[in-house]
Each structure stands twice: as structure tokens, then as C-alpha cells.
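Researcher: If only I could read C-alpha cells as easily as an amino acid sequence. Walk me, if you will, through where the backbone shape changes along the chain. I have put the entry right below:
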Amino acid sequence: MPANLDPDAALMLRVKQGDTAAFTQLVEKYKQPVINLAWRTLRDLTEAEDLAQNVFVQVYKSARRYEASAKFSTWLFTITRNLCLNEIRRRSRHPAESLDQTHTENEDQPLHQVEDKGVASPPQQLLHGELEEKILEVLAELPENQRTALLLCREEVFSYEEIAEVLGCSVSATKSLIHRGRETLKLKLKPYLRTGIWKDEK
């Protein structure tokens, strides 16, 4: 096994050999980030959790064919994006099924949506909630590839090259998608920009 192998890819190679403990480690590490991406894409927590479960089922089923040719997280989020796209296509064919599923209660939202900086006063909490809801509204209006590029960029663990691989496009196209998405966010979130919650630099 190469010394410079991505540690998560090394775990996945152990899964390939039948190591269920290694699979559990990967699930524990990536379950919440996968749910977060799915939730921000689909705007429904139950569907996001179901999709995350399907992602890891697919990961496990694909273990025998797995080759450590890229970072494990890149491969994982490519699967996540593809399943999200499948769900979006399903919704477009059956829109009535999703009319009442676009919002969930705040207390049911996945963790790591907005980083807490101590205990906020009630007005600050209200502004926080309004900002997060507005961000989600603007993201939902973006083209899918722009939205996914921004969300992966916000995770701060992906390089432009890795985001490009997930999206299936060039690095220059990825940078353009992120730039256009950020410009749209800046335009529509002007009243909130001074809060500094959405960082627009990578």
C-alpha cells in the first residue's frame, strides 16, 4: 500500500477486503457532511437522511470494484451528487409529491449549518436564522452545478481540482461556476454580508 495513500482511501481498501469496522469509521466520519450536502440540495431532512443511507449502501456495494485512484471523499461526494440529481429528476417528474416537503423545522436541521461563536442574543439568533434561510433560498435558485460547487467549496476540504472531478468539468469551469455563484449570493444577500457568516474567499 503506497505510503502517501489517502487515509480514507486506505480504509476503503480495507472495506474491500471485508473489514466492516473500517466501513463504520467512514460512515461515522462522513455521514453528517453527506446529509448536509443532500439537505442543502433537496431542502428536506427526511429525504436527505434517506439519501445519505443510500449513498453508503452504494459505497458498500461498490467496495469490490473500488480503486484508490482519487481521494475517497471525492469519490463519495460524486456518488452523493449523482443521487441528489436522481432525486431532483424524480421530483421534476412527480412535483406534487414534493410540494409540502420544501421546509423542515429548524430544530430538525442537520448540524454544522452555521458555526456558533458563543451564545447569541435573541436578536442575533433571529438574524442568524434569517440569514441561513435566505442563503438556502438563494442556493435553491442557482443552477445545480453552481450550487454543488459552492457547497463543496464551503466545506473547505476540497481543492478546485477535486470539486472539478465531482462535477465532471474542468478546473477553469469550476472556478467560473464558483465565481458566478458567489456573485449571485453577494447580490441577493447584501443586507447580511456584514455578518461574515458566509465567507466568499477560498
